[in-house]
Structure formats: C-alpha cells, structure tokens
Design brief:
The chain has three helices and four strands; from the N terminus they run βαβαβαβ. The chain is of the alpha/beta class and 106 residues long. It has one domain: Rossmann fold, CATH 3.40.50. It has a four-stranded parallel β-sheet with strand order 3-2-1-4, with helices on one face. The longest helix is centred in the first third of the chain and has 10 residues. It is globular. It starts with 6 loop residues before the first strand and ends in a 29-residue tail after the last strand.
Length: 106
C-alpha cells in the first residue's frame, strides 16, 4: 500500500468482518478499532490481535487523541442500520440511531 505510514481506523468495528475485508484488500491490519460493545471488541481483539482497541462510543473517542497525530489513510464507518431502515425486516424502529452517520463529519 503506498500509504504505509498512514493508519487505518475501523469505527463501529463489531466482530471484525469489515476489518478482515480491509486487511485482505490492503494487505495490512487495521490500526485502530472502535466499538461500544465489550463482546464485539473481545471478538474483534481475538480476530485482530495487532489492532489497538477502544471499547467506547464513537462519540466519546477523540479522533486526534487515538490517532496520536498520525495521518489516516482510511476511516471505515459501518453504523448499525437495522433500527432505522428496513434491514431488520419491518418498519424502522429507532430514528435516533440515524445520527450515528454524523460521526464521519467529526
């Protein structure tokens, strides 16, 4: 990858499926993974032991602090859609979760 000195961040990391895809596509591990769920972070840590993990809300993580000033080549964001779309199989349930996508602007 031509941006070897830059880092990769996986927000809403879950168990690590997106991180695995990123690793297969880029040939390198995700540097930082963020998810609020302890079970998801534990699974991600098991699947991606070389990644720095944060078990926090993406809103509570300071991007400048966790990146330690390093430039970011890829910031992956996969917010949960099942509560505000038809992905759960029915009428959307929680419109407040729509705000998760705004973390990308931050």
């Amino acid at each position: 990858m031509p941006y070897a000195h830059e880092i990769i961040v996986d927000n809403f990391a879950g168990g690590g499926g997106a991180s695995t895809g990123i690793e297969l596509a880029t040939g390198r591990s995700v540097d930082i993974a963020i998810n609020h769920d302890p079970a998801a972070i534990a699974m991600h840590r098991a699947n991606h032991p070389d990644t720095e993990h944060y078990c926090e809300s993406v809103w509570d993580v300071d991007p400048r602090e966790v990146t330690h000033g390093r430039p970011v080549a890829l910031c992956w964001l996969s917010p949960d859609c099942k509560h505000f779309s038809k992905a759960k199989g029915g009428k959307p349930k929680e419109k407040s979760i729509r705000g998760l996508a705004w973390v990308a602007v931050r």
